[in-house]
């Protein structure tokens, strides 16, 4: 009788450990996906009207940091960057996000988010609940 009770407790503890591991994997995915809650779009980096060299920095749609510079006198380039992560570090050039995409440059529209089971554009608690509710259910086919 005692060993059967211990076995049930052991099985229960193993299930809890499995769920904790799944939660850990889910949280690591969320924390390492830089753009899950960010909005990526085209940004104009320009030195038009600038009188000095300008250094820029931005975070791209994959979460990588980029630095580059533009000389004074009218250079412009468009890159995809997360909103709020593009800056003119020095000089008198400037950067601003475009409201609509410029058709001559690479699109910044991202594919659907991996792990976004409810389709709301964010990986959050509701996605974890959907995942856990369906975990272990055998597929019909």
Give a quick set of tags describing it.
elongated; 2 domains; 2 helices; single chain; 141 residues; three-stranded antiparallel sheet; alpha+beta
What does it look like?
By secondary structure, this protein is of the alpha+beta class. It is 29% helix and 24% strand. The chain has helices at 2-32, 125-134; strands spanning 40-46, 54-59, 65-70, 76-82, 87-90, 94-97. β2 and β3 form a beta hairpin. The longest helix is centred in the N-terminal third of the chain and has 31 residues, at 2-32. The protein is elongated, with a radius of gyration of 24 Å. Mean pLDDT is 79; it is low at 29-37.
Summarize the helices and strands and which ones pair or pack:
Layout lengths: L1 H31 L7 E7 L7 E6 L5 E6 L5 E7 L4 E4 L3 E4 L27 H10 L7
Antiparallel strand pairs: 1-4, 1-6, 2-3, 2-5
Please give the alpha-carbon distance between the first and last residues: 40 Å
Tally the helices: what do you get? Answer: 2
| Total domains | 2
Level of helix content?
25-40%
Q: Write the H/E string, N to C.
A: HEEEEEEH
Strands, total number:
6
Structural class: alpha+beta
